[in-house]
Design a protein that fits this description.
Elements lengths: L1 H13 L5 H16 L12 H20 L1 H5 L8 H26 L5 H9 L17 H18 L8 H29 L3 H20 L11 H6 L7 H19 L9 E3 L4 E3 L5 H11 L3 H14 L1 H19 L5
Antiparallel strand pairs: 1-2
The protein binds fe (ii) ion (2 copies).
One fe (ii) ion (FE2) binds next to helix 7 and helix 8.
């Protein structure tokens, strides 16, 4: 919500240079907006650390969307039917769109897209480690939709109520599209699961490989999560990593059953007392290793991204030249 902070900001702005008192007034206004569950908007005052946290999170999210196009795009030319190909192309395009909404949201915080892409390409900013795993069979497209997009939704639905307005609004649209992605993955796996024994085995194998990395998508356990407490205090984040992970497991168990597939965890069972499923230990060594850059596809994903960026330079230049010409034309300075 712009008004509260904006108006106090203007008053406080009159006394800029007046010492610590004015910044306290800004802070109080910011805290009040967050406490009232209203939205902080781009021109409102915000603490530097809040801005930096948002840029880091939104950038990482945007990078994940565009890097995430690669593992599935790998199967577009080999989709088993025209219908499947059209669906997959639409999905991969959606992910590009998500990247664009999110880079735009980051730009409202004063960080340009060029800078963020440069940080991605030079390895100074991360993307979700899940995309460093390979897509070995067609069933992986289904497992990604069902599990990876499913985990993304579980993570992102609460972000629709994030305290930063542009991020929250981008998430509303993204979540609607993610829900289509999740359903297409489920439907694809269901077709395979009900198909020939070979197709069923292919679906099961994909789920076996994607299940644990999907649980890792929620980030480290609460005790080790560096930024969680502050992000929750700022209402950027609404639930802890472990809470969201458990919610995701609870959602997946009955869905796996109706798919006729098994989740690869012998410790998975309903805990009557807690009203949730218990699940086995996650291999955090693998998580940290992939994060460090040693996953099966880290190098391949980044190299391909850098290459695509260089290849696309002429498109960016042409678009910028066209926009500049168009703007000048409108002022009447240049006659056609
Ligand atoms: Fe997405
Ligand atoms: Fe998606």
């Amino acid at each position: 919500m712009a008004t509260a902070v904006g108006s106090v900001g203007a008053d406080a702005g009159d006394s800029v240079g007046g010492g610590a008192g004015s910044s306290t007034e800004y802070e109080r206004a910011f805290d009040a907006v967050v406490a009232a569950d209203e939205r902080i908007e781009p021109r409102d005052w915000m603490p530097d650390a809040y801005r930096a946290t948002l840029v880091r999170q939104i950038a990482q999210h945007a990078h994940s969307e565009i890097i995430g196009m690669q593992p599935e795009a790998n199967w577009i030319t080999r989709a088993p039917s025209l219908r499947r190909k059209a669906i997959l192309m639409a999905k991969v395009q959606d992910e590009a769109g998500h990247g664009l909404y999110l880079y735009s949201a980051a730009e409202t915080l004063g960080t340009g897209r060029d800078e963020l892409l440069d940080k991605l390409h030079s390895g100074r900013q991360k993307y979700s480690s899940i995309f460093n795993y390979p897509t070995l069979t067609w069933a992986d497209v289904g497992a990604i939709g069902w599990l990876v997009d499913g985990a993304a939704i579980t993570n992102q639905v609460p972000l629709c109520r994030c305290s930063y307005g542009p991020y929250a609004r981008a998430m509303v649209r993204i979540c609607k599209e993610e829900s289509f992605h999740q359903r297409q993955g489920y439907e694809l796996l269901l077709a395979l699961s009900r198909g020939t024994p070979e197709q069923h085995a292919m679906a099961q194998d994909a789920v076996d490989r994607w299940w644990w990395p999907s649980l890792m998508m929620f980030g480290p356990p609460d005790g080790e999560s560096q930024h969680s407490a502050q992000s929750m205090a700022w209402k950027i984040k609404r639930h802890s990593n472990d809470e969201l992970r458990r919610r995701f497991v609870d959602i997946c168990v009955p869905q796996a059953e109706s798919l006729g597939l098994t989740l690869p965890d012998p410790d998975l069972r309903w805990n009557e007392e807690q009203g949730h499923h218990d699940f086995g230990p996650i291999d955090w060594t693998e998580f940290r290793d992939v994060l460090k850059g040693n996953g099966p596809c880290n190098e391949e994903r980044l190299t391909r991204r850098r290459h695509a960026h260089e290849e696309g330079a002429w498109v960016r230049e042409s678009a910028a030249a066209y926009a500049a010409k168009h703007t000048t034309g409108e002022t009447g300075a240049i006659r056609p």
